[in-house]
């Protein structure tokens, strides 16, 4: 599978590389052809720059503004002797063609543009300048030109097309043949070695990517420990590192999901057990009341009814907290934030818990700062947090213990609330799970009336307030739960 994937990737990239080289090669040939052609034309024009001037110096076909045919014929014969491939035109100052050589050619343009002629005459740098070809309209060719003057009066221009039709055809044929020879040799050799070197580079790259793809395939097939060896990679190392990091994150998330799934199963088992217990108690005592309706004493009836009442209260509390936590986890509860004094809320709640704590011989002390700014939060939800933390503290604090509640100003415009007890504390191995849904430390105290959802609910509420619930605990010494609220 790996070899097949490697070959597929290698040949795909190789094909694309070959096509790119072919395109680059054709573009190079095209550019070389045009550049070489332009260069040869420029060289030709420079070499023959004074051809028109030389023709005029040997004969003058004008006299008193009229063409002298013998002199003109003599000039054309002189041109034939110099170069029979030249095309010579006698052009008046407006561009109209008066005469031409060779005479057997049939010109198509009766006049030409004189601007290139003037530019050629005025140019001292001998730049490449093209002009009209009377035999081929729309075609621009290199030329030589010179003014024909007498007594400082311009009579005409001698306009010499350097590449005549015959010479142009021969030149194109020779040049094209020469270019193809050069292309076959130089470009063929260059492209061959470039392609060969490219294949070696592509082979190296695709081989490394094949290793990466192989590891990805193993990971996709379930080998969650598959990772890419970074030591054998170079330029692909960044991609490999990204994959390894992604695989680590996915593996961590999968482990967390497994942990959540285990907690969910544990939750279902615990909830099922706790729901069955009060239901069984209620049902058992109710059946007993029905069976012993006529023989039961008033004292027994009262005791049975009290047991049914206690079990129904526990059942109601469990269902209520499960429903509350489910709504928090489903983001169905939105905090209705307002400004209030946290110390006043803590004082009211602690007053309500004094009787419960007194019955268990527990002391609740409050240390409330009087110089606190109002906090901005949902007062009913924060009340629920403090109540849950106090319930938790009372359950885990033995008789004659104490609980303290402290409010104080903190950095970053926040108020810190701390609830401390001197109870059994929480072992270090259990601290990561203390805020988990349905966690209970059953091994440390009798929590038959606990649902195990109080801390999970408190944490979810604080999450809605962009706060966190911190724990400081020491086994057999006590625990402190701390959270912070932003000031308004």
Notes on the protein architecture:
By secondary structure, the chain is α+β, with helices and mostly antiparallel strands. The chain has 4 domains: 2-43 and 171-214, no CATH class; 49-161, Beta-Lactamase (2-Layer Sandwich), CATH 3.30.450.20; 237-329, Orthogonal Bundle (Helix Hairpins), CATH 1.10.287; 338-486, Heat Shock Protein 90 (2-Layer Sandwich). 55% of the residues lie in helices and 16% in strands. It has 10 helices and 14 strands. It has helices at 2-47, 51-58, 69-82, 115-122, 165-220, 237-291, 298-329, 342-359, 379-396, 454-464; strands at 62-63, 66-67, 87-91, 97-101, 130-132, 140-150, 153-161, 338-340, 363-368, 375-377, 402-410, 414-421, 470-474, 478-486. The strands form 4 sheets. A 5-stranded antiparallel beta sheet has the order 4-3-7-6-5. Helix 1 (2-47) packs antiparallel against helix 5 (165-220), helix 8 runs parallel beside helix 9 (379-396) and helix 9 (379-396) packs antiparallel against helix 10. The longest helix has 56 residues, at 165-220. The protein is rod-shaped and about 160 Å long. The model is unreliable at 441-448 (pLDDT under 50).
């Amino acid at each position: 599978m790996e070899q097949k994937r490697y070959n597929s990737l290698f040949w795909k990239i190789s094909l694309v590389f070959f096509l790119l080289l072919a395109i680059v090669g054709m573009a190079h040939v095209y550019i070389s052809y045009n550049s070489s052609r332009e260069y040869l034309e420029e060289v030709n024009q420079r070499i023959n720059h004074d051809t028109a001037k030389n023709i005029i110096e040997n004969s003058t076909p004008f006299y008193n503004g009229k063409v002298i045919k013998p002199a003109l014929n003599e000039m054309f014969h002189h041109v034939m002797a110099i170069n029979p491939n030249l095309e010579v035109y006698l052009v008046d100052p407006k561009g109209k063609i008066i005469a031409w050589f060779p005479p057997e050619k049939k010109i198509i343009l009766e006049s030409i543009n004189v601007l290139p002629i003037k530019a050629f005459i005025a140019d001292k740098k001998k730049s490449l300048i093209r002009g009209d070809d009377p035999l081929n309209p729309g075609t621009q060719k290199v030329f030589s030109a010179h003014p024909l003057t007498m007594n400082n009066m311009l009579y005409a221009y001698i306009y010499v097309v350097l590449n005549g039709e015959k010479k142009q055809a021969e030149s194109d044929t020779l040049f094209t043949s020469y270019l193809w020879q050069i292309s076959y040799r130089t470009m063929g050799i260059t492209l061959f070695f470039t392609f060969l070197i490219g294949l070696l580079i592509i082979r190296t790259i695709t081989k490394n990517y094949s290793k990466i793809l192989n590891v990805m395939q193993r990971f996709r097939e379930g080998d969650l420990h598959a990772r890419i060896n970074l030591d054998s990679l170079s330029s692909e190392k960044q991609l490999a590192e990204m994959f390894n990091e992604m695989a680590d994150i996915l593996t961590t998330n999968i482990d967390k999901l497994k942990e959540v799934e285990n907690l969910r199963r544990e939750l279902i088992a615990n909830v099922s057990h706790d729901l069955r217990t009060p239901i069984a108690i209620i049902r058992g005592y109710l059946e007993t009341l029905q069976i012993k309706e006529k023989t039961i004493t008033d004292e027994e009836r009262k005791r049975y009814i009290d047991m049914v009442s206690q079990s129904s209260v526990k059942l109601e509390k469990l269902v209520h907290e499960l429903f509350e936590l489910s709504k928090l986890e489903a983001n169905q509860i939105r905090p209705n934030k307002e400004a209030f004094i946290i110390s006043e809320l803590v004082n009211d709640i602690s007053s309500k818990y004094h009787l419960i704590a007194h019955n268990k011989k527990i002391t609740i002390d409050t240390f409330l700062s009087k110089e606190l700014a109002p906090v901005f939060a949902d007062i009913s939800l924060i009340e629920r947090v403090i109540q849950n933390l106090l319930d938790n503290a009372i359950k885990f604090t033995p008789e004659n213990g104490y609980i303290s509640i402290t409010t104080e100003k903190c950095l970053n415009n926040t108020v810190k609330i701390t609830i401390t007890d001197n109870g059994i504390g929480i072992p270090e191995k259990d601290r990561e799970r203390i805020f988990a849904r349905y966690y209970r430390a059953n091994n440390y105290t009798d929590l038959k009336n606990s649902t195990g959802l109080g801390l999970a609910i408190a944490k979810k509420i604080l999450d809605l307030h962009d706060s966190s619930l911190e724990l400081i605990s020491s086994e057999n010494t006590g625990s402190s739960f701390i959270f912070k609220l932003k000031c308004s």
